[in-house]
Amino acid sequence: MQKLPVNIRQAAVIGAGVMGAAIAAQLANAGIPVMLLDIVLEGNPDRNFLAKQGIQRALKARPAAFMDASRAALITPGNLEDDLKKLKDADWILEAIIEKLDAKRDLWARVEGVAKKTAIISSNSSGIPMHLQIEGRSEDFQRRFVGAHFFNPPRYLHLLEVIPTAKTDPAVLQEFSDFGESVLGKGIVVANDVPGFVANRIGVYGIVRAMQHMEKAGLTPDEVDVLTGPALGRAKSATFRTADLSGLDIIYHVANDLGKATPADEDFTLTDTFRKLVEEKKWLGDKTGSGFYQKTKDEKGKTKILSLNLESLEYEDRGKVSVAVVEAVKNQPLAARVQALYTAEGKEGDFLRGVMNDSFWYASKMAGNVSNRLQDIDNALKWGFGWEEGPFETMDSLGVQTVIANLEAEGRTLPPLLAAMKASGRERFYSADEVVTPAGEPTPYAAPYFILTDLKKDATKIIKKKAGASLVDLGDGVLLVEWHAKMNALGEDQLRMVQDGHKAVQSMGYAGLVIGNQGENFSAGANLPLVLAQAQAEEWDELDDAIKQFQQTTTSLRFSPHPTVAAPFGLALGGGCEFSLHADRIVASAETYMGLVEVGVGLIPGGGGTKEMLLRFTDQLQPGQQTGATLLPAVQRAFELIGTAKVSTSALEARALGFLRPTDIIVMNRGHLLMEAKRQVLALAPGYIQPTPRTDIPVMGDAAIGAIKSALYGMTEGRYASAYDAQVATQLARILSGGVGNNRTAKVSEQHLLDLERDAFLTLLGKKGTQDRIAHMLKTGKPLRN
């Protein structure tokens, strides 16, 4: 038997449609060279036209398919006639062609003739069973074949269903799952080779049943989306916006196919209205512009969303729909919201209980069918459909025996899993270290990688805790400062916990410190309401002290006697960015949106961010360029980055912008972030030497201010910048000049630049223009151009 490749170093995607091109883009995001092949388009002189078109489509996609447009260079376009033989170089070959069994079988016959004997072979089919595709192929080919079902868009949806057949080598399954999780950054669900696999089987069932319950209750699509969206812990697109995004034709075909392939009691029957939309109206959702919703523009050109009237099949402008039962609970925690909605009265309550009980009954029926683990079903719906909790987690929240009693009251036959739970009297599927099997028996459960919520179940790991931050023992001599405030806005709790973390590392003999968390975002920056309140109360001494403390805390990550690692993800803005910049090393999630955005509220980065970018960009100049006018490119680069509040669209772009250094690390799977940050602390700790603040930063004095003001004049005259933008930018220019007057060859210290930052921050905070900008941002969430 041939030895399998240790790593997938090169891949090939066959089929350059929307999905195939997007999968190729995600491979490129991960740094994997990939061939993208499609058929030769008859009559077109460019034999690679379809593959090139796929790449261009991915480049233009919104949301962006590429984390950095330069990664498109890793995709080589080709065609199945001229380039089939090149598949011999691929370690992994994936098809994403038309959903027809004969076409897939024909393709695999051709691929087997050229693929190397160690290549892993996969299909991205969303519904055609894998074992049917490989009938007639050799035993060796079949053992290396495993389904790989991505969800669209592949960059953003975490789920990857991996579907082995009875012939798949367990080593192939393990190797490919590890590759998908660690290299591609996916959440892996091992699905059984059954119709619909996991997420689509349960998700489409939910959409079909929601349509039935909606018509029975006399609700509208937009009312249902309010009921089944964030209030219930599900995605903003809820039920029918999700249907429009997916394509009503896709749901139509999947539901019909599943209806034929599943028992009658599962009921994938589409309503007459749904059928009319697809068969007669040809309204297929976003792809045709009309579905359950229709996008249009008003007389001012502003986009409006119209909702479908199910009786007249006309679109109506219903404005923002409000549902009383949701309004009553929207500010409560998820568990309380779910409990209240499950027990609500009226037609909304009847609808919600019907939909939720369908979900509970069907997920339980599918346990052991679509997957052999309950957590795979929960994860598939969380990662593929954006749910906060899966059905088994939600039943735990409501009480399993309560759900069972409600299902029996409706006259439903309990699936074996729920029958076993009733017999045992268990109230939960999950406990601290166990999860129930599909047979209803508890089995040990351990997270596959470090998950903070699991760690918190052991109270001995919490060293210190405040309302907005905690100090957590990560094990192996590493401490974690975890922020857990709304948007992780930076206030007193967060700063003090960083300081306490440094003290604990030294007093308790730890190796180092990680700054990270597993909230929605790493940190959206400073606590603006507090800053504005202090400015309006003219508490200038208190503000001066607060900025000093903030600077001391951010720079402490650089100048502590032990290594520090920042683990940003999601939004890392303003102060969140500044904390990251000062760590010895950054371990960033690939989906990190980092930026110094203070100018948007009329301020400048005051926690060392301005200083740090000037220092970095001057250090990147050649030695002979680090004086006088030759410093101008570094100054301009820092000014443009900060003055335009540029935010990276990924960690790859953050590196290109200068927020990440070559030594910093990008992790594709956010779930692995803290584990890798801990590893980096342990790698830095042996022989760590405490850095000292720099005193040799070259600056170019008033010449920098003159150059920036000249550029500002053109921007204000061209109305690219407002009058107040110019005032803020002038303060920024003063810092970047070094504040040394006409001395073009001066060198200053980091502390000198920090002092300039603090002075500029306070100066701007005292101006009405800045206070108006902060107030407007807090009220509307949008910047004010004053």
What does this entry look like structurally?
- The protein has 786 residues and is α/β, with parallel strands linked by helices.
- It folds into 3 domains: 11-190, Rossmann fold (3-Layer(aba) Sandwich); 199-444, N-(1-d-carboxylethyl)-l-norvaline Dehydrogenase, domain 2 (Orthogonal Bundle); 459-769, 2-enoyl-CoA Hydratase, Chain A, domain 1.
- The strands form 7 sheets. A 7-stranded mixed sheet has the order 14-15-16-17-18-20-22, sandwiched between helices. The protein has a 5-stranded parallel sheet with strand order 3-2-1-4-5, covered by helices on one side.
- β15 and β16 form a beta hairpin.
- The N and C termini lie far apart (71 Å).
- It catalyses: a (3S)-3-hydroxyacyl-CoA + NAD(+) = a 3-oxoacyl-CoA + NADH + H(+).
- Residues 196-294 form the 3-hydroxyacyl-CoA dehydrogenase C-terminal domain.
Strands across the major sheet, in which order?
14-15-16-17-18-20-22
CATH superfamily of the largest domain: 2-enoyl-CoA Hydratase, Chain A, domain 1
Low-confidence stretches at least 5 residues in length (pLDDT < 50)? 1-6, 450-457
What is the second-level CATH architecture of the largest domain? Answer: Alpha-Beta Complex
How much is the radius of gyration in Å?
29 Å
Number of strands: 24
The total count of helices amounts to: 31
Shape: globular
Q: What is the terminal separation in angstroms? A: 71 Å
The whole-number mean of residue pLDDT values reads 94
CATH fold descriptor of the largest domain? 2-enoyl-CoA Hydratase, Chain A, domain 1
Q: What amount of the residues lies in strands? A: 5-15%
Largest sheet: 7 strands, mixed
| Highest-level CATH class of the largest domain | Alpha Beta
Q: Output the structural class.
A: alpha/beta
Structural domain tally? 3
